[in-house]
Amino acid sequence: MAQNFQPKPSPIFLSRTSFPCAVAILLLFLALTGYYSLRNICPKTASSSSSSFSHTQDDTQKLKPHAVEQIFLNSSNNSTISSFLHSLTLKPHLAGTPPALHTLQYLLTQLKTLPLQTHLSQYEVLLSYPLHSSLTAHFTNGTTKTLFLQEVGVPRGQIVQPYHAYSPSGSAWAPPVYVNYGRAEDYRALEVLGVNVSGCVAVVRRGSVPRGGVVERAAQEGAVAVLLYAEGDGEEEEGIERGTVMEGLGDPLTPGWAAVRGTHSERLGLEDKEVRRRFPKIPSMPISAHNAYVILSSLGGPRLPYNWGPSKVTTRNKDRTGSGVGPGPTLLNFTYQAEKKMATLRNAFAVIRGVEEPDRYVLLGNHRDAWTYGAVDPNSGTAALLDIARRYALLIRLGWNPRRTIILCSWDAEEFGMIGSTEWVEQNLENLGSKAVAYLNVDCAVQGPGFFAGATPQLDNLIVEVTKKVNDPDLHKMTVYQTWAAANSGINIGRLGRVDSDFAAFLQHSGVPSIDLYYGKDFPVYHTAFDSYDWMKKYGDPLFHRHVAVAGIWGLLALHLADDPILPFEYLSYATQLQEHMEALSVLLDTGISLHSINSSIQELVDAANGAKMEAKKLREKKYVEDLSELRIRAFNDRLMLAERGFLEPEGLKGRQWFKHLIYGPPRNRESKQSFFPGIADAMDRAAKMKKIEGQSAIQHEIWRVARAIQRAAIALSGELS
């Protein structure tokens, strides 16, 4: 009935996956019949707690794994997801503001009515908000223009004015200069043209370099302020991209430990060197593409470097092609005032207790806070998470409970630097290190067409198998796997070395195997006032079928990780990926630097992975004494789970101790494109400023550290002492 969809939250309409045939109805009928028959025979064992759904072990036999999967997939409902998203996006809900509490209450109400066991974890952290901003252009003909710094058509007071969180207050009266993407290579190109940006306002178009990296580079080049714009067309030209410019993750006052509430909790001061290091030295402000054009169209100076490529702003009119980069002659009067203040964050959790291994955790996470209405970022993911909770509750009513504990996580203040998830990981580090099976992250569930996934490599095969079971939302009679493979000429799973969502603390600090999922690579209303429910139903996912697909994949991944007797981890994939990383690294290194130690360690991991594969086969064939098989399986699963922790280095990266994963993490140089071996990437960056022998020694040391980490993982996987 998808063709009859009306884009309103109230009518009920079913997706192609919502009970599409009599087979699904019969399956549910049989499951329900079996459930109520068992209740009549054994009413005590079949009853459930209203708060935690605690069942006896016998209850888990009511639904076979295949039936669980089919019921989960067939109980999807795009109308329900649409309704969730509509309610979540009625008002802007920036972290630390009163509307954020309303969004939290809605989430908790939905979870409690299922009902699921819920709880909160609260933290007191430092957030950043705007007080005042202004920008006026003074042209050479004597005219001035005060630029409007809010999206056109957005009522004042309803939504936070565009700003960069943690930008310092400041003012400037200076000429603007266009610096392309604000990379080191762009400033060098300007130097060739004889352009000096010292004392100027840098105007930057948004690219792949993080906002904080753009501002940091501008300060190093002598700029006094930064204006950052994202290109767009039509209405999107008026959009203004908010965001954080703070370096690192988590609360800046509690680096490495949780910002628990209370007067007795340790916190650094704002003037502490460790705190100041994380904030930019010069002020910055986001502006619209329209305002960027007003400024850039008035610039003189040398023409744009040819290799900068086309820009929608600088080539807006044909006669603007090859325009000047400045500085000036226009002058800008720039003012920004901000405040940093303590705020309470609230992470919310729903727990489905495992019946056989309650102390093993499968975590599904999405952040709840948004810069504006947040229909795409992040509440498309929140709506999907609520729909998964609804479907899991249905399974529980039919007699299912997971083997391992499932925790649904709703994070706060992700937009400020993954603060909510980071504080929680830091507080629960020991338990996560010994008990977390995997973390499954969905941030922007739906941005547009096309499926994308990132993961630690031992989860690659699981993602592939699950996507074979979920219908493609855009092409009838095809699976997500088929269209995904066709779009990429094979399966392309990214890696999680970046720090742009809540998986970062789980993987890069705690060593928990992780996955990140989403539909659509980019969307033009990112972090603007136009990221609304109306945009989603008009452009992003009009029928909400892509939401259904993401929720299906996300939920099935968790079901396998929670219910499969033997964890579906495959470390041969990891070894293959490490080999590819090593080969890519070898191209970047000077002769005289050896990768032999990494190569040897990878071979040890291959041997351990092959051994684990054979052991898993024996366990599935039950070639051990029956009463010992469960103990053997649990011990084997622990090795699969804990092998990822072997890649952690207790000392962390040099100068960045919080980042402990030596395979995946962000390089210090935020312009670097290297997404693996961050310690080696840092050493290569430092070596460029050293004597050759000293630089090679620094790089070789980091190579040895990576080799030892891979060896630790291999030993953990094999389960044998060396």
Write the topology of this structure:
Elements: H1 22-41, H2 43-46, H3 65-74, H4 78-88, H5 98-112, E1 117-138, E2 144-146, E3 164-165, E4 170-174, E5 176-178, H6 184-192, E6 201-205, H7 211-220, E7 225-229, E8 243-244, H8 273-276, E9 284-287, H9 289-296, E10 331-352, E11 357-367, H10 379-397, E12 404-411, H11 419-427, H12 429-435, E13 436-446, E14 451-455, H13 460-467, H14 480-488, H15 503-509, E15 514-519, H16 533-540, H17 545-563, H18 571-588, H19 596-620, H20 626-642, H21 678-687, H22 692-718
Parallel strand pairs: 3-8, 5-6, 6-7, 7-9, 11-12, 11-13, 13-15
Antiparallel strand pairs: 1-2, 1-10, 4-10, 10-12, 14-15
Helix pairs in contact: 1-3, 3-17, 4-10, 10-17, 11-15, 13-17, 18-19, 19-20, 19-22, 21-22
Short description:
With 722 residues, the chain is α/β, with parallel strands linked by helices.
List keywords for this structure.
722 residues; alpha/beta; Aminopeptidase; Glucose Oxidase, domain 1; Transcription Elongation Factor S-II, Chain A; 3 domains; nine-stranded mixed β-sheet; four-stranded parallel β-sheet; 22 helices; 38% helix; disordered N terminus
What can you tell me about this protein's structure?
It is a single chain. This protein has 722 residues and is α/β, with parallel strands linked by helices. The protein has 3 domains: 2-124 and 342-563, Aminopeptidase (3-Layer(aba) Sandwich); 140-245 and 280-329, Glucose Oxidase, domain 1; 571-718, Transcription Elongation Factor S-II, Chain A (Up-down Bundle), CATH 1.20.930. Helix content is 38%, strand content 16%. The chain is built from 22 helices and 15 strands. It has helices spanning 22-41, 43-46, 65-74, 78-88, 98-112, 184-192, 211-220, 273-276, 289-296, 379-397, 419-427, 429-435, 460-467, 480-488, 503-509, 533-540, 545-563, 571-588, 596-620, 626-642, 678-687, 692-718; strands at 117-138, 144-146, 164-165, 170-174, 176-178, 201-205, 225-229, 243-244, 284-287, 331-352, 357-367, 404-411, 436-446, 451-455, 514-519. Strands 1, 2, 4, 10, 11, 12, 13, 14 and 15 form a 9-stranded mixed β-sheet that branches. Helix 4 (78-88) crosses helix 10. It is globular. 51% of the residues are buried.
